[in-house]
TrEMBL record:
Residues 233-279 are annotated as: Disordered. This is ABC-2 type transport system ATP-binding protein. The keyword ATP-binding applies. The chain crosses the membrane at residues 12-32. Gene3D superfamilies: alpha/beta hydrolase, Galactose-binding domain-like, P-loop containing nucleotide triphosphate hydrolases. It comes from Amycolatopsis saalfeldensis. Residues 233-247, 262-277 have a biased composition (Low complexity). Belongs to the ABC transporter superfamily. Pfam families: ABC_tran, Peptidase_S15, PepX_C. Signal peptide: none annotated. GO terms for molecular function: ATP binding; ATP hydrolysis activity; dipeptidyl-peptidase activity.
Length: 956
């Protein structure tokens, strides 16, 4: 099973954690500008005291900054920050908007920065009410244009948390003249606890309509990131820290005019160097008690009760979108596992139904994929300016989406934009959906106890890295063997551009032998290339819960809406639907179970297609040279790929029947360390070869090169004449057992093997289950649960798994680890029986005696080089020791000790062993006869250990 390599040192873990924090912070705060701030922008800092609640005498202090353009009065923009940030988070964009001529008001929301109060997740009576008071503040400013008394010309924008605030304010305060939310949510209940299944497909004709069904699956990783961001100290210091007084003005450098510009001082320490008072710890952090209670329920039960659902919906834009009539620009990310395209789709439908004017843009970024670039920021600014002043071209109600290509210029992928006249389904004709046939039988999928190991669909905040590297992508999407059902389409004859959410009809049933009343499942749609490599677009996964499963195994029909994506499926590629039982980013029931998953009769994959006019993204002039260089690099890469393909098909016909030939192998790592040098040996059919050597000898490096996991610096490896390269087709003829196989303990050995083979995608008739099980010698135990197996039985089951398909060459690393002597004896018989079929086994082991008894041949390595190879018997006899079977062992020992140079004389029953140190064995026999000792037999003492120690030294 593929595993994600985790950092092993404290420093590496810290670095990885820091990377996650930085990426997530960049995703959830808001977009920034790379340009220099206009020098004419002035700022005014002020602290406003606002009611803590409607009708309350208590106050909260809201820290604000107003950015003033060169010319006033001017239209205003309220710019809200993202979760975990504060007003400083949006400073670059505020300056950019002010440079365009807007008065921009930013503030730190309750519980963030230097503002006081508790975080209520955009509570209409708290954060939204505060924003409405900020509109009052703008209306009273001489620098802001107005539509009338108390009614400023004002728009509101923000990303993520700030985007939701924008919509909530536009739905509650009629003075808002335009709204432009970015990468935000419609319904926080569905955003954090999604359920993508329903009895039938969504009726909406829009391209990314999600199924907002109740009883969803908790998105624990993303929710945990946000709860953590609100649990500690505020980002700008203590909420009670003193902020600048109202009316203080700063210049463009940010220092207070007429003041020092320094931050408030921290509380003075006591004489002992400790703070005078340690703050009381609070598991709720800066959240309100209501929000904390909701999170606690979700985190501990994985489900949202009625009170939690009511809270999440009350603080969601969905509660007010039916009241929004102001012009709206919805900007949503195509790479966003937090708030997907379905959230923007729902908002567009609701505002349009209320009579609002909606324009929608999907761009390549999102919480996982990055912030809006300068061109998109310009579009947002143009929309706000026209909406507030009437100047410029009308942005209209069109729809555009970005399609990311594979060609990169200076590390940036090529992007083209598809423009449509309108967002499909809001008015007129709905979205076209291509019916694509899926094939695959009903399959069993296991949920292991504790839902561990779990599938990996992505790592929140870091998924963008997967899209930037074909090597990283497999680490971000793995499906453990036996935990998923898979269904595939035929290869496409021409490109299919998926733009939105596909749907599929499934049948789900409980296994009668393991009945459970409900199933929590995860649907994913992979793009599978011509070489079999698969990519999970946008790392998108659709969690869904199916309740009411009959105990007798009767299936329940559901329609699953897959996540919204934009992905060109190239000619020759196919789509693969994977429906799994676990996902590490979600809260999954820990009770083990088995579910039967199949396609409903006549089911097809309904794929949304949105036609339009494609426009390439223009590159700045300075990038043209970079694009040319990229083209040259692409040509070189294609040439290199062609060379690799040619090398992977490099065949020596004279070696077609030879399992393994290693010639002149060398592996040198960065820094000059040489792990393997000038290694050459050959393995013939039917041999059991033992690869011996002390730690650091280069055995593991050699096996990794043999399996195509790393590339030799020099030399080559040929398996049945085929040169080994990463991904070489001949690797399918090799079976391997390198680490623990992770069997599912509550299932039988046979079922584990069947699930493993099914995960390979190869036909069942080619598995040769019976032969592998017979060789492994498990007998009736193969039908017992693995949790009742002894360690030896588990090891034999692992060997049987490696034998599935009866590979012609089997490579095993320490197969007897952890076994007692009887179990080692059984394992020895398993390997010898397998080799007796004419196949070949290579065993790496540190147990010299075991190799001597198991293997027919041996290769000894030391410090990366070969020091000896040959038959085990020949090497064992090369130590210089001899054994004599005699009638009088005591007299024989005394006679041998009389010779100069003869050492290590030992008596073992009728046998006498001695190191002759070059003395011919015949002379030793003659001396024994002259001493009156009857010699029945004489020969070399065959001990591999002695030879090994002579070859590599006792201190190696």
């Amino acid at each position: 099973m593929p595993r994600i390599p985790l950092p092993r040192t404290r420093g590496a873990r810290f670095t990885a954690l820091a990377a996650v924090v930085v990426v997530v912070a960049a995703a959830v705060v808001v977009w920034t500008t790379s340009g220099s701030p206009p020098s004419a922008v002035r700022t005014q800092d002020a602290v406003l005291e606002l009611p803590a609640a409607p009708g309350s005498a208590d106050k909260v202090r809201i820290d604000t900054t107003t950015y003033l353009p060169e010319k006033t009065p001017a239209p205003a923009v309220l710019l809200a920050h993202g979760f975990g940030g504060d007003k400083s988070s949006v400073d670059p964009q505020a300056r950019e908007l002010a440079g365009r001529g807007f008065v921009v008001l930013t503030w730190s929301a309750r519980g963030f920065g230097r503002s006081t109060g508790k975080i209520g997740l955009n509570d209409p009576n708290a954060e939204v009410a505060d924003a409405s008071r900020l509109v009052d503040h703008l209306a009273a400013s001489k620098d802001v244009l107005t539509d009338g008394k108390g009614d400023p010309k004002v728009a509101v924008t923000g990303a993520s948390y700030g985007g939701a605030l924008s919509l909530l304010l536009a739905g509650t305060d009629k003075r808002i003249d335009a709204v432009a939310p970015v990468i935000t949510y419609n319904d926080l209940a569905q955003g954090l606890v999604p359920n993508a299944a329903a009895a039938q497909a969504p009726a909406a004709g829009t391209p990314a309509a999600g199924e907002f069904a109740p009883g969803g699956v908790f998105k624990k990783t993303w929710a945990g990131i946000f709860f953590s961001a609100g649990s500690g100290a505020p980002s700008g210091g203590s909420p009670s820290a003193e902020a600048p007084e109202a009316g203080q003005e700063t210049n463009d450098s940010g220092t207070t005019a007429g003041g020092s510009g320094t931050a408030p001082q921290a509380a003075a320490p006591t004489a002992g160097g400790q703070a005078s008072q340690l703050p009381a710890a609070d598991p709720c952090g800066r959240f309100t008690a209501e929000v904390c209670q909701a999170y606690t329920e979700l985190a501990t039960t994985g489900k949202a009760g009625p009170q939690t659902v009511a809270l999440l919906r009350r603080v969601s834009p969905a509660s007010v979108t039916s009241k929004i009539t102001a012009p709206t620009l919805l900007v949503q990310g195509e790479s966003d596992t937090l708030f997907g395209l379905d959230q923007s789709d729902a908002t567009a439908r609701q505002i349009s139904a209320a009579g609002g004017k909606v324009k929608t843009i999907w761009y390549t970024g999102g919480h996982d994929g990055g912030t809006p670039g300068p061109q998109l920021r310009t579009k947002i600014g143009d929309f706000l300016w026209h909406s507030l002043t009437g100047e410029g071209s009308d942005p209209g109600t069109g729809f555009s989406y970005d399609v990311q290509g594979t060609l990169r210029a200076n590390g940036t992928p090529s992007v083209r934009t598809v423009n449509a006249d309108a967002y499909p389904g809001l008015t007129g004709q709905g979205t076209e959906r291509r019916q694509v046939a899926l094939t695959g039988p009903v399959q069993s999928a296991v949920r292991p106890a504790g839902a561990n190991p779990a599938a990996v669909s992505g790592i929140p905040g870091l998924n963008g890295l997967a899209g930037s590297s074909s090597r990283l992508a497999p680490l971000f999407s793995t499906d453990p063997a036996g935990q998923a059902a898979q269904f595939s389409t035929a290869p496409f004859g021409s490109q299919l551009l998926v733009a939105g959410s596909s749907t599929v009809h499934l049948r789900v049933a409980a296994d009668p032998a393991h009945p459970l009343p409900e199933a929590v499942l995860f649907a994913k749609l992979y793009d599978v290339g011509t070489d079999g490599a698969r990519v999970l677009p946008a790392n998108a996964v659709a969690p869904f819960r199916v309740g009411g499963l009959p105990a007798d195994g009767t299936p329940v029909d559901v329609t699953v809406t897959l996540p919204g994506i934009v992905r060109p499926i190239e000619a020759g590629h196919s789509l693969r639907l994977v429906v799994g039982t676990t996902d590490q980013s979600y809260s999954v029931p820990g009770q083990p179970g088995v579910f039967r998953i199949g396609l409903a009769p006549g089911s097809a994959l309904a794929v949304p297609v949105v036609p339009g006019v494609s426009v390439g993204t223009p590159a700045p002039a300075g990038q043209l040279i970079g694009i040319g260089a990229t083209l040259l690099v692409a040509v070189a890469a294609l040439a290199f790929a062609a060379l690799r393909r040619r090398r992977s098909h490099d065949v020596d016909p004279e070696l077609a029947h030879t399992p393994l030939v290693i010639s002149g192998l060398r592996k040198q790592y960065a820094g000059g360390f040489v792990a393997v040098k000038d290694l050459s040996f050959r393995v013939e059919p039917g041999q059991v070869l033992g690869l011996l050597g002390p730690n650091g000898a280069g055995k593991t490096t050699t096996l990794r090169m043999l399996m195509g996991l790393i590339t030799p610096t020099e030399g080559e490896i040929r398996v049945f004449g085929h040169r080994i390269t990463p991904g070489a087709p001949v690797l399918s003829r090799i079976g391997s057992f390198v680490e623990g196989s992770g069997f599912l303990p509550h299932l039988s050995g046979r079922t584990n093997l069947e699930l493993y083979w099914a995960a390979t995608g190869r036909p069942a008739e080619k598995a040769h289950f019976a032969e592998a099980l017979e060789i492994a010698g498990l007998g009736d135990a193969v039908d017992r649960r693995v949790k009742n197996y002894s360690q030896g039985m588990r090891q034999r089951l692992a060997i049987a798994q490696a034998m599935l398909g009866l590979p012609e060459l089997m490579v095993l690393d320490e197969p007897t680890n952890g076994l007692d002597p009887p179990q080692i004896h059984q394992m020895r018989e398993v390997l010898q029986r397998y080799a007796a079929t004419g196949r070949t086994v290579v065993v790496s082991s540190h147990l010299l005696a075991e190799v001597e008894q198991t293997c027919s041949h041996v290769v000894v390595m030391h410090r990366g080089t070969l020091v000896a190879s040959g038959e085990v018997g020949e090497l064992a006899a090369a130590s210089g020791e001899a054994t004599f079977r005699v009638g009088d062992p005591a007299a024989a020992a005394a006679a041998l000790k009389a010779f100069d140079g003869v050492t290590d004389v030992a008596v073992e029953g009728e046998l006498v062993h001695a190191n002759l140190d070059g003395l011919p064995r015949a002379e030793a026999v003659a001396a024994l006869v002259r001493a009156g000792v009857a010699v029945e037999q004489a020969g070399p003492r065959r001990r591999l250990e002695d030879t090994f120690l002579q070859l590599v030294g006792e201190n190696s």
